[in-house]
Design a protein that fits this description.
The complex is a heterodimer of chains A (about 280) and B (about 300). Chain A is built from 12 helices and no strands. By secondary structure, chain A is an all-alpha fold. The longest helix of chain A is centred in the last third of the chain and has 39 residues, at about 190-230. Chain B has about 300 residues and is an alpha/beta fold. Chain B has helices spanning about 50-55, 95-105, 115-125, 140-155, 170-190, 200-205, 245-260, and strands at about 5-15, 20-35, 40, 65-70, 70-75, 80-85, 160-165, 190-195, 210-215, 220-225, 275-280, 300-305. In chain B, the strands form 2 sheets. Chain B has an 8-stranded mixed β-sheet, with helices on both faces. The chains are: A mainly alpha (about 280), B alpha/beta (about 300). The interface between A and B is medium-sized, with 18 and 23 residues.
């Protein structure tokens, strides 16, 4: 066959998907006949699905139907515990945008200064090394205690987790601008501000964007956990709420939606990164 | 002294050595360059040629001594001294026009965008890159990149052009073409040029004077050789000139042996402030070997300083 590798890869992806869905479907069918009859008390405890002999785990058709249902009415609002998935995603994206935006505002200028100065670079290094590996959720109690607002605390947690990759990458990108480009600026008597914006920033931009891309990935991972803790709104809260409702169908639906939004965010930054990358 | 447009006055450059001491690249170095001359400095790698150029460019500072340009001590880099870098050093995210315009707008910050571009295009045309204005450096060949580097340096109309082995990364054909262009442009504009090279033929073709540096560390300016070849020389018939082989042999002999042995046989009357000026003697045509095989040796040199 003379199909391109792209076509063949897509075909293989489709095959894997179909096999997976079929296996899932078969595995969750359950058996209505056979099996020892259940103790009626136990059956009562386990709920309706158990008594009919069907697994509580939904099949792909159930999830597909639920997904369509959510996507057809994403923005309904029936009170605090029953909001459309679009509203919940909107809250999560808004929190990520706020925390991530603040982190970019702090990390990029600070990283610039640290990258330009070997002294500051060394002075800040121990703090960065110690704070960077801390799980952002460990900050949550401190944030709740000091900020006293759960929504703002979630934003703070996003801020603290996205700040490090951007800071470290900006500092590294700025510090590793080629000496000869800086020498060009020096021999042309280019002032410090013009040099920062016309030489250092474009030269470091690909590295900075890489840091921003790592950060958005982490922020989207962390927002789900943060919202599970904080509660109220957001896709993380939705997942936890549906777990309490024992609606595995909704949980799986949410997992799919979270994955798709995460991919979209990553793609957006990949496009931005490509726009500032220069071939050498 | 009007003779010295550029004047290195007793400069030294020392670096801390890994073992705690200091490494002296050179010290008590004196050298003058007259206005409008094309000067080549030749010497082996590690003799401090590039350090010398960087000090003149203002990118490096001497540990001792001063460098005067047009009677003024230099302090840091200046738009009066344009540098053509060994590795072209173009900004890869800018186009050809963008790279040259960057230099032009640094020289003339008050010019409008259109004026800057018109000025830049004039110099892009001068180096023969018309039509490539909107290409990025990655799309250009090595020779074309270096042409952009030359256009960028010339576009700020500097008092001195500094070149650090600008053609060493190019293939022989491209190098030849670019040498022709640089020579033409510099002759037309009467540009003062200070160029570092280790290519003897390049120095013979381009230079009015060739400065010979001994091996480092502790390098010295052994002498300055005046190029006896006619100013309107052509690359193709250089070697037919009777002074060509004496000059070439003198330079090669320096690089092969004297650059190494000079420090052991420093003339007693050597004054570091006045490195000797040497002019290879042009042999009378009748005295030259008929076949042009063996050329007269360095004995035909006469110290005219």
């Amino acid at each position: 066959m003379n199909l391109s590798i792209g076509t063949r890869a897509s075909a293989l992806s489709a095959v894997i998907l179909v096999v997976f869905l079929l296996a899932w479907h078969v595995a969750t069918q359950g058996s209505t006949a056979g099996g020892p009859p259940m103790d009626p008390e136990y059956a009562k405890l386990m709920g309706l699905t158990a008594t009919t002999g069907k697994s509580a785990m939904p099949g792909p058709l159930d999830v597909g139907a639920k997904l369509l249902e959510h996507l057809s009415r994403p923005f309904y609002d029936n009170g605090p515990n029953d909001k459309g998935i679009g509203i919940q995603l909107g809250w999560s994206i808004a929190r990520v945008a706020a925390g991530y935006g603040l982190a970019a505002l702090v990390a990029i200028p600070l990283g610039f200064v640290i990258g330009m100065s070997p002294l500051l670079s060394r002075a800040f290094d121990p703090f960065i090394q110690i704070l960077k590996p801390v799980s952002p959720l460990a900050w949550m109690p401190l944030a709740l205690y000091t900020i006293k607002d759960s929504g703002a605390s979630a934003i703070f947690v996003i801020f603290i987790c996205s700040v490090w990759p951007m800071l470290v990458n900006t500092a590294f990108g700025v510090a590793s601008v080629r000496k000869e480009w800086l020498n060009v600026a020096r021999t042309l008597e280019v002032g410090p501000w013009r040099r920062a914006f016309t030489v250092i920033l474009p030269a470091a931009a690909p590295t900075i964007l890489t840091g921003m891309r790592i950060s958005i990935g982490i922020a989207w991972l962390v927002i789900v956990a943060a919202e599970m803790l904080v509660g109220g709104t957001g896709i993380g809260y939705f997942v936890w709420n549906e777990w309490n409702n024992l609606s595995i169908t909704n949980v799986i639906t949410a997992i799919l939606v979270i994955g798709m939004v995460g991919m979209l965010l990553d793609r957006m930054l990949a496009v931005a990164a490509r726009a500032v990358t220069f071939p050498e | 002294m009007s003779e010295k447009f550029i004047s290195f006055e007793g400069i030294a450059r020392r670096y801390p050595a890994p073992n705690g001491g200091t490494t002296t690249i050179f010290e008590d170095l004196w050298l003058g360059v007259p206005k409008g001359e094309f000067v080549c400095v030749i010497g082996h790698s590690g003799c401090g040629k590039t350090t010398l150029l960087n000090i003149l460019a203002g990118l490096d500072a001497p540990s001792e001594g001063v460098v005067l340009v047009d009677g003024r001590e230099i302090a840091g880099p200046s738009l009066d001294r344009a540098v053509i870098f060994q590795g072209h050093a173009l900004l890869p995210w800018r186009t050809v026009l963008g790279n040259v315009a960057y230099a032009v707008s640094s020289r003339h910050p008050k010019k409008s965008k259109a004026e800057v571009e018109a000025h830049a295009k004039r110099f892009i045309k001068l180096v023969g890159l018309e039509g490539s204005e909107h290409k990025r450096p990655a799309e250009l060949s090595g020779g074309m990149k270096q042409r952009v580097g030359i256009a960028r340096a010339l576009s700020i109309e500097p008092k001195i052009l500094l070149m650090d082995e600008p053609f060493s990364a190019l293939d022989a054909l491209t190098r030849g073409t670019l040498q022709d262009e640089v020579r033409r442009i510099c002759r037309e504009t009467g540009q003062t040029v200070f160029m570092i090279t280790h290519d003897v033929d390049e120095a013979i073709y381009l230079a009015d004077r060739v400065v010979l540096m001994t091996n480092g560390p502790g390098a010295m300016v052994a002498e300055t050789v005046v190029n006896p070849l006619p100013v309107d020389r052509e690359r193709t018939d250089l070697h037919k000139h009777p002074a060509y082989y004496p000059l070439r042999n003198h330079l090669i002999e320096f690089l092969v042996t004297r650059s190494r042995t000079f420090r052991d046989h420093v003339p007693a009357d050597r004054d570091p402030r006045r490195p000797p000026l040497v002019r290879p003697e042009i042999p009378v045509p009748a005295a030259a070997p008929a076949a042009g095989g063996t050329a007269p040796q360095a004995e035909t040199l006469r110290n005219i300083a």
